[in-house]
Design goal:
By secondary structure, the protein is mostly beta strands. It has one helix and eight strands. The strands form three sheets. A three-stranded antiparallel beta sheet has the order 5-1-8, with no helix packed on it. Strands 4-3-6 form a three-stranded antiparallel beta sheet, with no helix packed on it. Strand 3 and strand 4 form a beta hairpin. It is flat and about 40 Å long. It starts with 8 loop residues before the first strand and ends in a 6-residue tail after the last helix. The relative contact order is 0.30.
């Protein structure tokens, strides 16, 4: 599901050919601590990424891997932590804006019930 990492940065490296699977796109939303946290930014069709292709993003960026419909995908994910982590407290900013459906999380969003209708479709 949609989440952010507890890392400073996250590196996701494709190890398998996109010809071996169907689905599994990678969706990116806003950054934890910002109003756009639950706004859709970009979706990558991971099946089009050649082996060795890598995506580096802030660990605080909300993201999700979509369901794999067929086949098998292999990735290497590396989480890099900071020796001086900066904590960001949860707050009203998380629910200030209406979320985009791609960025709504049943597990992490306190207002999920209010917006779950966005997922029907």
């Amino acid at each position: 599901g949609v989440h952010h990492d507890e890392s400073a940065v996250t590196l996701n490296i494709a190890l398998s050919s996109g010809q071996g699977f169907l689905g599994g796109s990678l969706t990116f939303c806003g950054v934890f601590g910002e109003d756009d946290y639950r706004r859709h930014v970009l979706t990558l069709d991971w099946s089009r990424m050649p082996p060795g292709y890598a995506v580096l993003h802030s660990g605080l960026r909300r993201h999700a891997a979509a369901r794999l419909w067929a086949g098998r995908r292999t990735n290497l994910v590396v989480w890099a932590i900071s020796s001086d982590p900066r904590g960001i407290a949860s707050g009203a900013w998380e629910t200030r804006l209406t979320p985009d459906a791609e960025c709504l999380s049943e597990l992490y969003d306190s207002d999920f019930a209010r917006y779950k209708h966005l997922l029907a479709g």
